[in-house]
Design goal:
Pfam family, one: AI-2E_transport
Order of helices and strands: HHHHHHHHHHHH
Radius of gyration: 25 Å
Subcellular location: Membrane
Family: Belongs to the autoinducer-2 exporter (AI-2E) (TC 2.A.86) family.
Helix content: over 70%
Protein name: AI-2E family transporter
Keywords: Membrane, Transmembrane, Transmembrane helix
Largest sheet: none
Number of strands: 0
Distance between the termini: 27 Å
Number of helices: 12
Strand content: under 5%
Length: about 350
């Protein structure tokens, strides 16, 4: 060994055991902290999505009009508020009355559905299983865990809106604060990764809203042609719940089928087929077109992430599991896959 080459430190067996133990203890502490604060991380993610939406819309307005960034941002926020207020003013009373009517008639809808199911042997078996689930003690525990969040539903929405407002108004303060935690030699790389995360979430949101609008329009047209009662409310429910992959469309189909059962079982079957066809069209044509430049997430991976994240955080985990999975995929690609590819090329 050359004299000027420093020798590697030699550790005894006991020191190596302590080092390994400390590493595993640190990993365990990080995992416990992550589990304890995961609800809060989901809320921060939801607020970040609001900021991505308004910032992305602001950049689109700025690109089309050449306005300044502040005017474009103000236009995007005020424009969305006015559009939402206009929608509520135009159809808010109708939707509110239909929702109230649906709540009043929901027990009757369930009874009609059970009577229709009892008309066949398969239906009687399904009805029997539903009665067992309803009478068991597992259902209330599951529902309470499913809808349980950190600060309660209203508190969570309030926190999400506050975080979204602060991130929208001054995102660079928080981004620069995160970058400063990185060693100076890696800050340019960190800026690039954060920029790709924001672009990915913005494109995902844009594609999602396009798909939600398409599902709402197609469902409204189909239900209106069929002459279904409460067709507008059911179409809005279908469009909004389409934000949640896999479970959202199924949840939207249930009230539509129950309402259709008040007409006759054939109508209920047609409604179920129509909802399935719309979702198939949305998942195979609209969403791929809207998100063609986005990272493709395997459908099974989305379901797995919804199950795991939903078990940790309840309903918020089900809703925001997909953008969380998108963030993880981008981070893995940027921090592991690309460096490994560069290393293999050498």
């Amino acid at each position: 060994m050359p004299a000027n080459q420093p020798s590697e430190p030699q550790y005894s067996f006991v020191k190596k055991v302590w080092i390994v133990g400390l590493i595993f203890s640190l990993i365990a502490i990080i995992l416990l902290l992550l589990e304890a604060t995961f609800d809060i991380l989901i809320l921060i993610l939801a607020g970040s999505l609001i900021a991505c939406f308004f910032r992305g819309l602001s950049k689109f307005i700025q690109k089309k009009t050449s306005w300044s960034s502040k005017i474009s941002l103000l236009t995007s926020v005020i424009g969305i508020v006015l559009i939402v207020a206009g929608i509520f003013w135009l159809i808010g009373a109708t939707v509110s009355s239909e929702i109230a009517k649906m709540e009043e008639t929901f027990p009757t809808l369930l009874e009609n559905a059970q009577d229709s199911l009892n008309g066949s042997s398969l239906g009687r078996e399904v009805s029997h299983q539903l009665e067992q689930i309803q009478s068991s003690d597992k259902l209330p525990a599951f529902l309470s865990r499913f809808f349980m969040t950190t600060f309660g539903g209203i508190g969570d929405i309030y926190i999400i809106l506050l975080i979204g407002i602060f991130f929208t108004v001054s995102p660079y303060i928080y981004k620069d604060g995160v970058v400063k935690l990185i060693p100076p030699s890696k800050r340019d790389r960190a800026n690039d990764i954060l920029k790709r995360l924001v672009n990915g979430l913005t494109k995902w949101l844009a594609g999602k809203f396009i798909a939600m609008l398409a599902v709402f329009v197609l469902t409204a047209i189909g239900l209106a042609i069929m002459g279904m009662p409460m067709w507008l409310t059911l179409a809005i429910i279908a469009g909004v719940l389409n934000f949640i992959p896999n479970f959202g469309p199924l949840a939207a189909m249930i009230p539509a089928v129950l309402v259709a059962l008040t007409e006759d079982p054939t109508t209920a079957l047609i409604v179920a087929i129509m909802y399935s066809a719309i979702q198939l069209f949305e998942s195979s044509f609209i969403t791929p077109r809207a998100q063609q430049r986005l990272i493709k997430i395997p459908p099974a991976l989305i379901i797995i992430s919804q199950i795991f994240v939903g078990a940790l955080t309840g309903i918020w985990g089900i809703i925001f599991a997909t953008p969380l999975m998108l963030i993880l995929i981008i981070l893995v690609q940027e921090l592991y896959v690309k460096p490994m590819e560069k290393y293999s090329e050498k």
